[in-house]
Amino acid sequence: MTIFRSFCLLSLVSTALLSTGCETAAPTTASTTQVSPAAAAAAANDFPRESMKQLRIGMQKEAVIQLVGKPTDISQKDGEAGPLEVWTYINTLAPRYREVAVEMDETSYVDPITGIERTVLDPRQQMERIERREYFELTFDASNSLVDLNYDLVRSSEI
What we know:
By secondary structure, the chain is of the alpha+beta class. The chain has one domain (39-158). It has helices at residues 2-20, 37-44, 49-52, 61-68, and strands at 73-79, 82-110, 117-140, 146-158. The chain has a four-stranded antiparallel beta sheet, with helices on one face. The longest helix has 19 residues, at 2-20. The chain is rod-shaped and about 80 Å long. This is Lipoprotein SmpA/OmlA domain-containing protein. Keywords: Signal. It comes from Actomonas aquatica.
């Protein structure tokens, strides 16, 4: 009989709790995801790299503009079959850093086993900043058709 009363009491309490409902916090719109500075810079960069992969020889200028947008620079050059127009797209990438030894310093060192003092050369490290830029050159002939695609990654460093 005691088990039956306990079961009835438990049923009554659980029914009361279920009928009152649950409360949930209102959803928030702010994101708590941390984004690295490099990822934020890449997200802010709207360079059409994926669209550049879709370029094909023979495309017309209008189709290229629709696909990748207007170029950074336009120049003229002479080709074997006549004048050519070269469109340059420049993409500045996030810089990279590395440590480089700029000088060797003499440092006194006492050998812990023998007690003899010696001089050793220690490299003095300094951070080197490496700037990186991508250059995409598209060449068009007199009929406004794409005839050549060139890609170059240029790195320059400064200490």
